[in-house]
Structures are given as structure tokens and as C-alpha cells.
């Protein structure tokens, strides 16, 4: 007879995703997960595997539900630099206000934590960083076509810098940086590549 689950695995994974996102892997124990979900250890293990497998599933869920849509919107926005400005404005608002304020980004948090010692996690982080860079590059190429970039600005190099800035925003917001400071930094980076004619 098939094992009948008396809980919603998707809802449980969402709860665990938020727990890992807020606390990180190193400071989240199995008992924390049991307390947050109300499930016993055997149910967690039989459904998801151990803590590391559960973390990987939660990180994948975060990427699919939070990161991928935001990057997709940036890639599809053909306005050039206004799209990049809006991306950073939204990113900073999301990181500094609302329900998930000061949690940072689960992906950036993993770059900075012990989580990246797992080869599967590292591969996901590399793919996600490339997606971020590619979305910014797409927007910067649109800016170049619209003659919004300053003479001599290489869209690829600018995308590298802005991708690192996005991770910095995520990490600094988690550490309590003020949104005005983050907005000023993002504005300065975008101004540095802007055609001033």
C-alpha cells in the first residue's frame, strides 16, 4: 500500500524555504525545521531526505519562484537603462521593506555561507549568477542600441559589475544598510555607464 502523506509537501517546502532563507543553513537545525513545520523527523526524512537534501529543494524553490521571474522581467524589458534602474529600485525595496525585509536573497546568502561547499549548491549558484549577468547584459545591450551607454562602455563588463552590485545589495540589506544608501550606490553605478549627451 502506498504511503499516504497527511501534510502538504509543497506548503511544507515553502515553510522550510523561508526558514533557511531567514536563518541560513548553519544556524538551522532539524529541530528548527520540525518546530516550524509541525512534522516529525521521520516524515521529513522520508519525504525530502536529510537536511542538505531539504535545503537543496528549498533553494531550487526559491530560484524558481522568486529569482527567475524577476530576471525574466528584466530580460523582457527593452527600455535599456530605465529597465536596469527599475530592477535595482525593486530589488532594494524588496530587500529593505515588507515581509521579507532584511532577509537578503537566499542565493546571495548561499554565496556567502557554508552552503556553497556542496557541489550541487555551487553549481546552482553558478547557474543563477550567470542568469543574473545575462539578464543585465540583455538590458545593457538594449541600452547600447538606444545610445544610452557612454562611449566605450562594454556591456559585458558593465553586466559583470552590476551583477556583483546586485549581490552586494542583497548582502548589505541583510546587514541593515539603509535603502537610501543602497539606492544612491546603484544610481552611481548606472550613471557611470550613462551617455550624458
Word description of this protein:
By secondary structure, the chain is mainly α. The chain has a single domain, classed as Orthogonal Bundle (Tetracycline Repressor, domain 2), CATH 1.10.357. The chain contains nine helices and no strands. The protein has helices at residues 9-23, 30-37, 41-48, 51-76, 81-96, 106-112, 119-145, 155-174, 179-192. Helix 6 (106-112) crosses helix 7 (119-145). The longest helix has 27 residues, at 119-145. The termini are far apart.
Topology:
Blueprint: H1 9-23, H2 30-37, H3 41-48, H4 51-76, H5 81-96, H6 106-112, H7 119-145, H8 155-174, H9 179-192
Extract low-pLDDT stretches. Answer: none
The CATH topology annotation reads as Tetracycline Repressor, domain 2
> What is the gyration radius calculated from CA atoms?
19 Å
How large a portion of the residues is in β-strands, by DSSP E? Answer: under 5%
CATH architecture: Orthogonal Bundle
- Name the shape in a single word: elongated
Order of helices and strands: HHHHHHHHH
Mean pLDDT across residues? 93
Question: Roughly how much helix do the residues carry, as a percent range?
Answer: over 70%
Indicate the structural class: mainly alpha
Number of domains: 1
Number of strands: 0
Number of helices: 9
CATH superfamily: Tetracycline Repressor, domain 2
Distance between the termini: 73 Å
Sheet of most strands: none
Amino acid at each position: 500500500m502506498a504511503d499516504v502523506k497527511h501534510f502538504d509537501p509543497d506548503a511544507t517546502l515553502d515553510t522550510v524555504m523561508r526558514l533557511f532563507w531567514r536563518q541560513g543553513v548553519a544556524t538551522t537545525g532539524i529541530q528548527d525545521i520540525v518546530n516550524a513545520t509541525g512534522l516529525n523527523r521521520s516524515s521529513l526524512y522520508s519525504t525530502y531526505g536529510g537536511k542538505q537534501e531539504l535545503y537543496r529543494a528549498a533553494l531550487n524553490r526559491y530560484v524558481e519562484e522568486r529569482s527567475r521571474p524577476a530576471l525574466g522581467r528584466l530580460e523582457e524589458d527593452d527600455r535599456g537603462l530605465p529597465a536596469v534602474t527599475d530592477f535595482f529600485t525593486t530589488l532594494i525595496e524588496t530587500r529593505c521593506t515588507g515581509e521579507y525585509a532584511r532577509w537578503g536573497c537566499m542565493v546571495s546568502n548561499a554565496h556567502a555561507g557554508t552552503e556553497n561547499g556542496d557541489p550541487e549548491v555551487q553549481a546552482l549558484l553558478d547557474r543563477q549568477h550567470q542568469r543574473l549577468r545575462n539578464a543585465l547584459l540583455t538590458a545593457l545591450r538594449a541600452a547600447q542600441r538606444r545610445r544610452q551607454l557612454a562611449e566605450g562602455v562594454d556591456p559585458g563588463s558593465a553586466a559583470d559589475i552590476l551583477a556583483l552590485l546586485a549581490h552586494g545589495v542583497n548582502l548589505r540589506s541583510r546587514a541593515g544598510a539603509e535603502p537610501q544608501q543602497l539606492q544612491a550606490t546603484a544610481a552611481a553605478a548606472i550613471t557611470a555607464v550613462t551617455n550624458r549627451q
